[in-house]
Specification:
single chain
């Protein structure tokens, strides 16, 4: 399961490419130029740029990996409601990368992103409920979040939804499916 979670983090794409030069540099793998373009905007408070700077640090693109720096930039973007930053910050707390490991904070950040429809966060929130990490074990919630992640295109969501369903009663399963339907109807 960790491999699925890590894979999503390490393959995140920059968000809202902003100034054309920064995105062109990123796509050309000219990461120092991308940083040069994005960092001033991040320092001015642009959430999308803060996420992108964090992404360069977390992946070690054009500079050494620095999870503490990444977490700092993700915090700034997450506080502005950037779902990708919230999901990634949740993952950093989940793993203890650049921050003290704290499952409760991981759940907090995953939930904020998941409620915005961020599929990786939906899956990871399902994991937290399934395993009882940072929150009491709850198979209904785990199924619900796995189901939503699957519906959003996160392939592992269906597999893990089906695994947790094997541990549920028919009543629990029906309730979890209803939760997912209700959530979907509210967000469309």
């Amino acid at each position: 399961m960790l491999a699925t979670m890590v894979l999503a983090l390490l393959h995140a794409a920059p968000t809202m490419a902003g100034p054309k030069e920064g995105m062109e540099a990123f796509q050309a793998k000219d990461y120092p130029t991308a940083m040069q373009e994005w960092r001033p905007l991040a320092e001015e408070g642009a959430g999308w740029a803060q996420f992108n700077v964090g992404l360069l640090y977390v992946r070690g693109l054009g500079l050494p990996k620095d999870f503490r720096q990444a977490a700092s930039w993700f915090h700034k973007a997450a506080a502005q409601g950037n779902a990708a930053a919230q999901a990634t910050l949740g993952f950093l707390y989940d793993r203890g990368w650049g921050v003290s490991q704290d499952f409760s904070l991981a759940v907090y950040w995953y939930r904020l992103a998941a409620e915005q429809g961020e599929r990786t966060a939906q899956f990871n929130l399902g994991v937290m409920y399934h395993q009882g990490w940072g929150i009491p074990t709850n198979f209904i919630e785990a199924h619900n979040w796995y189901n939503l992640a699957s519906a959003a295109g996160f392939k592992a969501g269906a597999r893990w939804r089906d695994l947790v369903a094997e541990q549920m009663t028919d009543t629990q399963l029906a309730y979890a499916q209803r939760l997912a339907r209700e959530w979907t109807s509210r967000t469309q």
